[in-house]
Amino acid sequence: MVIGHLVGAAVGYGVLALAGSTAWAAAVAAVAAVAAGITLALVMAARTAHSPACATAVVVVLQAPVAARFVPLLFGSTVLIVLTGYAASRVRREAPRYPAYWW
């Protein structure tokens, strides 16, 4: 999950750099779709499939957030979600173990 979102952010910033941050480039949904497609291909190849990571790439392309703020917040929030899921799966003994595998 963490790696998937970081890949999504990296692809989003890369596509944004290639397409430019003009109003026309941000308005064209095809640029965001390209970023989502590249992200999906990369996370599937890296065995870190996480569909919301594609949405991260789309958000980066359409909103152009400042990387120095966005990436640390993204990293911290995904780590917090993973730790919460891990802790919740340990509370009940009959609950499925999370994560199923680490890599």
Describe the structure in brief:
The chain has 103 residues and is mostly helical. It has five helices and no strands.
What does this structure look like?
- By secondary structure, this protein is an all-alpha fold.
- The chain has five helices and no strands.
- It has helices at about 1-20, 25, 30-45, 50-65, 65-90.
- Helix 1 (about 1-20) packs parallel to helix 4.
- The longest helix is centred in the C-terminal third of the chain and has 25 residues, at about 65-90.
- The protein is elongated, with a radius of gyration of 16 Å.
Write the layout of secondary structure elements.
Blueprint (H helix, E strand, L loop, with lengths): L1 H18 L3 H5 L1 H17 L6 H12 L3 H25 L12
Helix pairs in contact: 1-3, 1-4, 1-5, 3-4
Distance between the termini: 10 Å
**Share of helix among residues?**
over 70%
| Derived structural class | mainly alpha
The major pleated sheet works out as: none
Mean pLDDT across all amino acids: 84
Described by the principal axes of the CA atoms, the overall outline is elongated
Any key phrases for this structure?
mainly alpha; 5 helices; 103 residues; single chain
